[in-house]
Amino acid sequence: MKRGDKDEGVDFKIKHVTVGGKKLKLAIWDTAGQERFRTLTGSYYRGAQGIIMVYDVTRRETFTNLSDIWAKEIDLYSTNQDCIKMLVGNKVDKESERVVSKKEGIDFAREYGCLFLECSAKTRVNVEQCFDELVLKILDTPSLLADGSTGLKKNIFKEKPPETTTTAGGCCSY
């Protein structure tokens, strides 16, 4: 089914990955960012260990909606205080049509404490790396792995990432 063909507004997939020698099963809820389904999507954030926000580098409004709509929704409904957030700029295969610069994506990710990556779903560039990097960060966050961890609710988008989180190489380097 194509993303635009969704009747419910949310697509559910199971993805099996092996990261760091561990076989993991990811439950992925794709809300497609359609504003008409916003009343449904709040429940999908509750208990999430990781959230990926995707914008189209060729459509400015998808980037603008991140801070205007989706960051607020996630902050309102996410219950895991240490939930890992990732910002992904898609459609880098259309470089000549780009209207959102990589620097803008990096700046947004820094401001909101997100991992960052650009990819192309069409050419598959960095798509697997997106999931791998998110899972590695979740596995490196003990509070997200504890059974029944609920942590105190806090504003997950207003915390600045620690200055020491920048790493050499990888998708999430600044």
From TrEMBL:
Cross-referenced NCBIfam families: small_GTP
Protein's UniProt name: Ras-related protein RABC1 isoform X2
Gene: LOC103488699
Family according to the record: Belongs to the small GTPase superfamily. Rab family.
Keyword Lyase: no
Keywords: GTP-binding, Nucleotide-binding
InterPro entries per record: P-loop_NTPase, Rab, Small_GTP-bd, Small_GTPase
Main localisation: membrane
A single GO molecular function term of this UniProt record: GTPase activity
Location(s), subcellular: Endomembrane system
Topology of the protein relative to the lipid bilayer: Lipid-anchor
A Gene Ontology cellular-component term: endomembrane system
Cited Gene3D superfamilies: P-loop containing nucleotide triphosphate hydrolases
